Amino acid sequence: MHVFVTGGTGLVGSAVVAELRRHGHSVVALARAEASARAVEAAGAEPLLGDLADLDAVRAGAARADGVVHLAFRNDFSGPDALARAVAEESAAMATLGEELAGSDRPYVTVSGTPWVTGRLSTEEDPLPLDGPVGGRARSVNGVLALASRGVRSSAVRLPRTVHHEGKGGFAGLLTDIARRTGVSGYPGDGTQRWPAVHALDAAVLFRLALEKAPAGSAWHAVADEGDQVRDIAAVIGRRLGLPVEPVAEETYGPLGPIFAADQPSSSAHTRAVLGWEPTHPSLLDDLEHLSE
């Protein structure tokens, strides 16, 4: 299959490109700068210069592909306005991809986060929350899944709050960055809230499986660890960096504060049973042992 990938040089995207190449697929990846293009070429893929705001490039990439994996997002969490602009940019790109693929029966795999449900693990059957700081992303993902009625084999891989590799990535990575900057390995609230996690290399396998065989309009959970308490995550970070571990104000995390404070464990039982996905790489707490001062 000839696959168009957006976000192909990020933590998840680079793993997805490598996974697709290992299984015989050719890849064209959107690259917003020359350095990104060189990274794409080094991975054995073909770069297409442009970014999510360049809808002509997005459309051109989809037009020549047998399938699409969308992963790109402008990670600007500097404030509510910046986050809203990033969501709007991504939404326009996702809609453009959908219009290009409509009526073709080609696969279109997009990405979202796992939802949170009070008092229990979330499952693939639970809807995404449509409000909050990233509610716009959920509405766009629902729009992609609705393309099933327009001749697109659309699916969504829901990623947990931390996708990690060698101690980097996701919300745990943000906790690490803030700890290094402030000198405190902090956590919001009492730290008993649980975050699910997955290794980037395991997540990449699920994106490939969804591309190859997921039914139209389906959602899947890339969850390996159902939920580590945030204070346990902060404790490993603090120990590895030699920093004190303390509760901090929710406002420390800017517009993501409410999400950081939420208890959001999640299950992937349905995904494993139906697609045969089975994580094999280190857990988050084990992976954080790669951190060093």
Automatic annotation (TrEMBL):
Q: Tell me the ranges covered by the NAD-dependent epimerase/dehydratase domain, including all copies.
A: 3-215
Q: Where are the transmembrane segments?
A: none
Task: Fetch the Pfam families from UniProt.
Answer: Epimerase
Gene Ontology CC annotations of this record: cytoplasm
Cite the CDD domains for this sequence.
Answer: SDR_a7
What domain of life does the native source organism fall in? Bacteria
GO molecular function terms attached to this record: aldehyde dehydrogenase (NAD+) activity
* PANTHER family assigned to the protein according to its UniProt record, in alphabetical order: NAD(P)-BINDING DOMAIN-CONTAINING PROTEIN-RELATED, PROTEIN YEEZ
Name of the protein this chain belongs to: Nucleoside-diphosphate-sugar epimerase
Q: Which organism is it from?
A: Cryptosporangium arvum DSM 44712
Lineage, top ranks: Bacteria, Bacillati, Actinomycetota, Actinomycetes, Cryptosporangiales
